[in-house]
Structures are given as structure tokens and as C-alpha cells.
Design goal:
Length: about 325
């Protein structure tokens, strides 16, 4: 496989991204998201307005910080199984892919910052994300993700990024699908409170397995949907695989995934405390360049993270 780590991806020293899109929409905006799917909002004027309000806050934060920006399309649930659950056919999901990329491109046209701007196609897991459930082989995962990855590539994304993958083989299949489509890819794993994937694999084992199976095609790896205190036990700053982690999108809450699933009130933690956790992790992650938030985080958290990372770098 041709290495796509840097092809077409001008990554600044620091690039910011957004926070917990779905938790902001549900808990702050009071918007109902069946199956936690945000992409149907693209199909209404009110929904698009909500997405614009949300994303413009983060663009302003990144521009003011002098950082670059990575825009994620709202397509985490726009894969075959979850799309069908909210009433979208394969043709409907392909239309969503093109519409979501056009939406991201329109935001890039508004970008006033001095850093780079990437439009990333967001890919979610086939299953729950927190629970592996019925797992796929790498070949099965490639077949499952091939259509969405291909649609986003055809729509013109700069890269695709997976979120909350709970086991290595799904990451391997996703990378294979991206290689077939000729698009750069970021593999995002989630971790439990013990620093391991929901499958029980260590983070290092998962990264090394994906790289070994795909010839290191992934541009970088990401950890998301875990508090920094849960990520820290997973890291070995001396291990080569740690340098492959280029993105971090942590939860505001220290709750377990099971507790978050049951929570009826949003735990948004403390933005400054969360930012300090990022700085601690950055000391062990020499390749870290992209930072943002996940569940429970909003513009306050990303602003604090960006400021803390900038101060630490200076």
C-alpha cells in the first residue's frame, strides 16, 4: 500500500477541531437525535442552522488561537446499519456524504485563520462503539465501511477519520477501505477507564496491529471518548507506536462508558482541568497535532485546551 501519511495533508504544529457535537445538540440545544445521529439535521433548514451555530464557534476559537482547523462532517452514524435505523437508504447516505462535505467546504470558505483547514469525513463504528458486540474480521470491516468511505472520497474530503472504534480489526478494515479509495485515513480508538480498548486490547497492540496489517497507511491515530486520566495508563512514551498518535479528543467526564450511557444529566467536567490533562498527555505524545473534545465538551473546553497547548509549546 502507498503510504498516505502526508500526501495532501499539510498539518500545522497545532490544529484544533470541535467538541462533543451530539452531546451539545442534545443537552445544550434540546435537539432530539434518534440513534444519536446528527447527519439528518442536514436535511432541514433548522438543522443546518443548528450545525452552523455550533461549528462557527469552533472556527472562531481556532482562528483566534492562530491554529489550523480540522472540520469533521456530522456523519458518525451515516453508515449502513445506523443509517437504516433512522430511515436512510444507501442512495440517501451517499447524498448525505456529498451534502456534508459541501457543508464543510462552505465553512472552509468562511475560514479567517492563518492555519490550514482540512475537511474530514467522520466514520463511526458498525456497532455501539462502547461495546464490541459482534466483531468483524478485517475483510468484513473493509467491506462494511467501503461504501461510506468511497462516498466521502468521491465527495472530495481531504481525509476520513474514524471515531470510537472498539477493536483493532475494525480499524484494519477501515484503513484497507481507505487505501482502496485512495484517501488518507485517521484511525480513532476509544478506551475504557483502565486504558484498554473495549475489546481488552491495549492501545499499543491495536496501533501496531493496524500498522502491521496495512503497511502503515494510516496518516495517524487518534484516541477519543475517554478522559485524559483514562488515556494516561495506556501510554508508554518510549514506545514507537506512541509517536503515531496525532489526535486527541477526550471526554469532559471521568465516568465510565456504561455510566455515560445511563446519564440523564450532562457531566461537562471542568474545562481548565481537562486542558491540564491534555498538556500532561502531550508530553508523552510527540506526534500530537490535532486536539478537540468529545462527549460533554463544548467551545469552552476547546478554547481552554487550545490555550493550554499553546502555552505549553511556547
Amino acid at each position: 500500500m502507498t503510504n498516505k501519511r502526508t500526501d495532501g495533508l499539510a498539518v500545522d504544529d497545532l490544529m484544533l477541531t470541535d467538541g462533543g457535537l451530539e452531546t451539545v445538540l442534545v443537552f445544550h440545544e434540546g435537539i432530539d437525535l434518534p440513534a444519536f445521529a446528527a447527519f439528518p439535521l442536514l436535511d432541514s433548514a433548522e438543522g443546518r442552522d443548528a450545525l452552523l451555530r455550533y461549528h462557527r464557534e469552533f472556527l472562531t476559537i481556532a482562528a483566534d488561537a492562530g491554529a489550523g482547523y480540522v472540520h469533521e462532517t456530522p456523519t458518525w452514524r451515516a453508515n449502513p446499519a445506523w443509517g437504516a435505523e433512522v430511515g436512510y437508504s444507501a442512495d440517501g447516505l451517499r447524498r448525505i456524504a456529498f451534502d456534508s462535505v459541501a457543508f464543510g467546504t462552505s465553512l472552509r470558505d468562511e475560514w479567517s485563520g492563518t492555519g490550514g483547514f482540512l475537511v474530514s469525513g467522520c466514520i463511526g463504528p458498525r456497532g455501539d462503539g462502547y461495546v464490541p458486540g459482534t466483531t468483524m474480521t478485517p475483510d468484513q470491516a473493509a467491506a462494511y465501511h467501503r461504501t461510506q468511505v468511497g462516498d466521502l472520497a468521491d465527495a472530495g474530503v481531504d481525509l476520513v477519520t474514524s471515531f470510537t472504534l472498539p477493536y483493532a480489526d475494525e480499524g484494519t478494515g477501515l484503513v484497507a477501505a481507505a487505501a482502496e479509495a485512495g484517501v488518507p485515513v485517521v484511525v480513532g480508538f476509544t478506551l475504557e477507564t483502565d486504558g484498554r480498548l473495549p475489546s481488552g486490547e491495549s492501545l499499543g497492540e491495536a496501533i501496531e496491529a493496524v500498522d502491521a496489517a496495512t503497511g502503515g497507511y494510516a496518516s495517524w491515530f487518534m484516541v477519543n471518548c475517554a478522559h485524559p486520566e483514562h488515556v494516561l495508563p495506556a501510554l508508554d512514551g518510549s514506545a514507537a507506536w506512541a509517536s503515531r498518535i496525532g489526535a486527541l479528543r477526550a471526554n469532559a467526564s471521568r465516568m465510565t462508558h456504561a455510566e455515560l450511557d445511563e446519564a440523564e444529566v450532562l457531566d461537562d467536567g471542568d474545562p481548565d482541568d481537562l486542558a491540564r490533562g491534555y498538556v500532561d498527555l502531550a508530553r508523552l505524545l510527540p506526534g500530537l497535532r490535532v486536539v478537540g473534545g468529545c462527549c460533554g465538551t463544548d467551545a469552552r473546553h476547546v478554547a481552554a485546551i487550545g490555550a493550554a497547548m499553546t502555552r505549553a509549546a511556547g
